[in-house]
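Reopening closed ticket. The problem is back. First fold of the pair:
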Amino acid sequence: MKKTILFATLIMTACTPEQEENLGLKDAFSDDFVIGMALNTQQYKEQDSRALPILNKHVNSITPENDMKWMYIHPEVDQFYFDDADQFVEFGLKRGDFIVGHTLVWHNQIPDWVFEDESGEPLSREELLERMRDHITTIVTRYKGKIDGWDVVNEALNEDGTMRESKWYQIIGEDYVAKAFQFAHEADPEAHLYYNDYNLHLPDKADGAARLVASIQAQGIPVTGIGMQGHWGLDYPSVPVLKRSLDLFAPLGLIAITELDIDVLPSASGYRGADVTRREDLFDEINPFVEGLSDSVQTLFDKQYHMLFDVFEEYSDNIHRVTFWGVTDGDSWKNDWPVEGRTNYPLLFNREGKEKSVIQEILD
């Protein structure tokens, strides 16, 4: 039987001061959406003493940051590695969380052999489809009834909304996305199935994602909705831009705000995106906050998170989940991307695991 989450209605006026102090994000938004975080290996193995109190107080949904990506869970043609994924799922089941699997089909963090035969030659369309089916079916079937939702296909679009020329696209064609959703639905008909991408606040890319998902749904293949990666900054997205995308995606199903963080550091090149292969050189001007944020930047950070949660709550009939990409600032990939060695502050908890003041402001 599919696991469900029961939400209790909170009447703030009836809370004692002690109850208000212990109120977490998952409680405050219990009538609106679940609150998630992406966990690294040490966190779901309960080896990170900073993370556990945060998860217990604030979180009722979890996503594995890396350990279910192809290179880790399916490293060889005939070899799956499930030990870490099993522990992740058991951790979520024990807590009663809404569990998200990330990610089944992506062009990054994937071994070269996936696209090649024994001689190193490219697979045919039929061979690669069969390899995709085997991967998806094996993993989704293993966690059927345990994992509640999947990021089925990740980042299949260019910034202008056209299809990315990945090896999936080159060998199979545009319908590789539809096929992935078909295989995932066949393996677990009850699971949430999301298309997940970054920069979906940008009109061209948002339009492309909406067209892609609508075209798959028109074929009778279930797509639960869109995962809107929230790798954003101090001055973007604006309220009108964000609302445009939410209005566009709402008719397509549930919306998940995924991978949420706010980059507070300047870019060397002006790039705004989340291409994990991108790298820039380190110099002092783009690492200005080694000793901590300035008051002016902290104010902008707080204001942006305020705005985002105001909009999320306004669209709570359509938004099912808000997931932060990491637990504390020290865990965030933003410290090393696209420039290694920087000190970033993109999340709601500092490096010691302490709540930032903006959390209480959001709760209030």
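Second fold of the pair, where the issue appears:
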Amino acid sequence: EPVALNSYLSLRKKLLTKLPYETIKADASSYIGKVFEVRGRVAGFSKNDEKGGCLILSTDKQGSFLINTESLPSDSTGTDLACLVRVGEGCKHSLSDLRLVACTYDVDFKRYEESKRKTEEAKIVKAETQRAKSASGKAQETKKEDAKQKLLTSEQLVEVYKKAIKGFNKKLSDSQADTIAKSVLGFSYKYKVDPRLVCAVILAESHFKITATSPCGAQGLGQLMPSTAAGLGVDNAYDPVDNIYGSVRYIRGMLDRMAGSKMWNELTWNDLALALAAYNAGPGAVKKHGGVPPYKETQNYVRRVVSIYKQLCGVK
């Protein structure tokens, strides 16, 4: 039976893996015992014995899932559920053996997510404003003799990024450029990623074209694949805020996978190259080849993003 949202969230925090669904799907046998999340509509049931059976869950972006459960929900088909699913021992080559850990009503989960997102965005704006105010009265010495670098307020910083973004894509309106600039700065601050790296990735991926779609189906500013977007909690990859939220989270995730728990100032250029390769080709490909995969597209992508990032940082 669906559990109360609080109970579900407690289990989710404790058990849920941070890996995107497509990563687990690509190498199912490596993730036996791991728990991931599936959100979709109940399409039917298959009863095995007095209590247990299989729950058929249909999703818009990831297809249908056959999930084993010891107790079938009493709800009728058509109910939207959020499910924590464990990869079973039978998943040798595909996700053919999935076990239900817990489920809750998705309508309650969506209300919770919306409330949480608004709260987090308010905290980000408040923290960024406070940080800018505390720094606005200080000056830093630069490498040039007798020169000092003036610190910017959060409003000034947004204007700098807004102007740069409009320069990258002149078709953007002031409102769109403002939204993108605030999202890049806000989510970069939240996930401790250099916003200039985020800009470099978006430039290489879409050149700041909000509606960009690749031949293979990657969507929006950060060119998220639908399955990756779904795994990151992005409902609309063509929404600039949603897309940047997912893209920054994915960059952070790839940095953590490739470089462990290093602080930003401890990262090497090799760490960055591996993370960018994972963003482009997937972490499984980087793991398989023990470094940047020998794919021409991926190698060119890494070189291009690093080159753009160095230019934005003023590094030769």
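Update: turned out to be a display glitch only; the data is intact. The chain has eleven helices and seven strands. The longest helix spans residues 106-135. Please close again.
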